[in-house]
Design a protein that fits this description.
The structure is a homodimer. Chain A is an alpha+beta fold. In chain A, 25% of the residues lie in helices and 36% in strands. The first copy, chain A, is built from four helices and ten strands; from the N terminus they run H-E-E-E-E-E-E-E-H-E-E-E-H-H. In chain A, strands 7-4-9-8 form a four-stranded mixed β-sheet. A three-stranded antiparallel β-sheet of chain A has the order 1-2-3, with no helix packed on it. A three-stranded antiparallel β-sheet of chain A has the order 6-5-10. Chain A is globular. The model of chain A has no long low-confidence stretch (mean pLDDT 96). Chains A, B: Its cofactor is Mg(2+). Chains A, B: Belongs to the Nudix hydrolase family. NudK subfamily.
Chain lengths: 202, 202
């Protein structure tokens, strides 16, 4: 099946399998989490509960230095109670264009800025319960500068080669999905297989 | 930095950046979502709110037919209000071993069973707000059988070549993270680069 055929196939499946919203109740609205409990009409006519939450979406950046090294961050992730190695990323502010989010977050978290920016693709990381999407960007040939963190924000910056990052994924130490997917995309570009990487507008 | 060095480096970072739990309050407990609002002590001594939820974890399967084709599913994902193409997956039941979850979910969702099973790795898909982990398995040489869906569960099964799946990722149509990462792992195996794929116990 070609990609165009799959797109049509998925549209038809979405109509055939549709779960129509009957009721929608806000059950928790915090500073970050916006949780809802809906009831939905299933394709067989039955009714079921659907718990989910809204997320504003996020942008993540693959920052590439002029010598090809990659900029990574260490960040403490409270839900997992430990630090992770990740590419820089952050939530999209209300009304903000994803590219602006990406450039803002890269500057705030790492100080790096400038360079040539390419929008790669959008990935969905939690489709069972959340509408979060992460828009991936690549920033090539960036320049160093000063971090601009909030007072209570802690992000440690370091650099690595693509080969190091791939070895950390192979060892099961780098496990964050946006970071793994971005690393594989960079690998494909460097191997001349950019046709296997979704690039917006290409 | 080698993988072992990174592991030690991350342990040190986890201690240095630790956010210690001061209070923890259950704010919503549904059938699926188990949402908490904590307060935590940050590395600089300040206090901050941390909203997050617990997830039991999930297992996902790359089902490989004897001829090398892959088994995929179409499933309606209510939070996104449309159908997605994914590898089969499901939540870990209480006390269930992840391999048992994977084998149960593959049988229930697709009818396929048997074959040779390999645990690949564990990925983290929502570390900003959730402790979900997805354990990836590969099942090679599986046999067809009958789906065993719940009455109100709708999963459509189809098969594709790895090349088709990679082209759908390149076109930005397959966007589910566990499916993208698994596809790239299978590609590496087939290209004789299995050393770039984390395999548990290897």
């Amino acid at each position: 099946m070609t990609a165009d055929e799959l797109r049509k196939d998925l549209d038809a499946a979405s109509a055939r399998m549709k779960e129509a919203t009957l009721t929608s109740e806000s059950v928790f609205k915090g500073k970050l989490l916006d949780v809802w409990r809906d009831t939905a009409r299933l394709p067989n006519g039955a009714t079921s509960t659907r718990e989910h939450f809204h997320h504003p979406g996020a942008a993540a950046i693959v920052p590439v230095l002029p010598d090809g090294r990659l900029v990574l961050v260490r960040q403490y992730r409270y839900p997992m109670h430990r630090a992770f190695v990740e590419f820089p990323a952050g939530k999209i502010d209300k009304g903000e264009a994803p590219l602006a989010t990406a450039q803002r977050e890269l500057l705030e978290e790492t100080g790096y800025h400038g360079g040539k920016w390419t929008e790669l693709t959008t990935i969905h990381n939690a489709i069972a319960y959340c509408d979060e999407r992460i828009i991936l960007f690549m920033a090539e040939g960036i320049e160093a500068g000063e971090q601009k963190l909030d007072e209570n924000e802690f992000v440690e910056v370091f650099t690595a080669t693509l080969e190091e990052l791939l070895s950390w994924i192979a060892a099961g130490i780098v496990t964050d999905v946006k970071t793994i997917i971005s690393a594989f995309f960079v690998e494909k570009f460097r191997e001349g297989r950019g046709d296997q990487v979704p690039v917006k507008g290409s």
